[in-house]
Amino acid sequence: MSAELFREDVGPEPVVSTAxxxxxxxxxxxxxxxxxxxxxxxxxxxVPKQWVRQGRRxxxxxxxxxxxxxxxxxxxxxxxxxxxxx
Length: 86
Prior knowledge:
2 strands
């Protein structure tokens, strides 16, 4: 998996990049970055309700397709699917 989506070497918890978050939510990374900036930065960012719904739908689709529930697996799954490799 691309290092720019997910990192485990940052601290006690895994870190998802903006690219990874966009992938999980099913939105364009540029759109996500623009929304974060519009809201005043990452510390103030609240995921728009529509994106939350999209993310839940994608999570359920990933779970149904794979039987897995992990974030790293979801990133791998959607990275492959959205790039056309699946």
